[in-house]
Amino acid sequence: MYRKTLLIVVVMLLSGATLQVIARDFVVLQKDKTFVLDGRKVEKYAIKQGDIIHFENQDPWFHNIFSLSDIKTFDLGSFPKGESRAVTFNKTGKVEIECAIHPGMFMEVEVK
Ligand SMILES: [Cu+2]
């Protein structure tokens, strides 16, 4: 039984399936024109390769979250209060995240 379990784990490691298994989901709120994670304003945050961030708008106006960073370029478009958009971070490095509507909004995600 132990050997069989070990074999399955080794096969998962070799096939890269672990990325799927260990990927975590984070929720970053847009609140008062800032990025908020776990109830606190966040300007820098470290995640792991494969993790997903859900950007959720809690402001009564639109946000348009985007990044022009080399390792992850995206543009989530304008979305209103109560909606969220997910981004998966597949490469390691630093990603600068901004809002196209509010130039003061900024956070940096380091993917490790
Ligand atoms: Cu905004």
Condensed summary:
With 112 residues, the chain is of the alpha+beta class. The protein has two helices and ten strands. The site of copper (II) ion (CU) has 6 residues, from loops.
Number of strands: 10
Strand order of the largest sheet: 3-2-1-5-8
Compressed to H and E, one letter per element, the order equals HHEEEEEEEEEE
Category from helices, strands and their pairing: alpha+beta
Overall mean confidence score, pLDDT: 90
Q: Which runs of at least 5 residues are low in confidence (pLDDT < 50)?
A: none
Q: How many DSSP H or I helices?
A: 2
Number of domains: 1
Amount of beta strand = over 45%
In quaternary terms, these chains amount to single chain
Main sheet: strands, sense, barrel:
5 strands, mixed
Small ligands present: copper (II) ion
CATH homologous group name: Cupredoxins -  blue copper proteins
Q: What is the fold named in CATH at topology level?
A: Immunoglobulin-like
Describe this structure in words.
The structure is a single chain. This protein has 112 residues and is α+β, with helices and mostly antiparallel strands. It has one domain: Immunoglobulin-like (Sandwich), CATH 2.60.40. 17% of the residues lie in helices and 50% in strands. It has two helices and ten strands. It has a five-stranded mixed β-sheet with strand order 3-2-1-5-8, with no helix packed on it. Strands 4-10-9-6-7 form a five-stranded mixed β-sheet, with no helix packed on it. Strand 1 (25-31) and strand 2 form a beta hairpin. The longest helix is centred in the N-terminal third of the chain and has 14 residues, at 2-15. The chain is globular and about 55 Å long. It starts with a helix and ends with a strand. The relative contact order is 0.22. The model has no long low-confidence stretch (mean pLDDT 90). It binds copper (II) ion (CU). Residues 33, 63, 99, 101-102, 105 line the site of copper (II) ion.
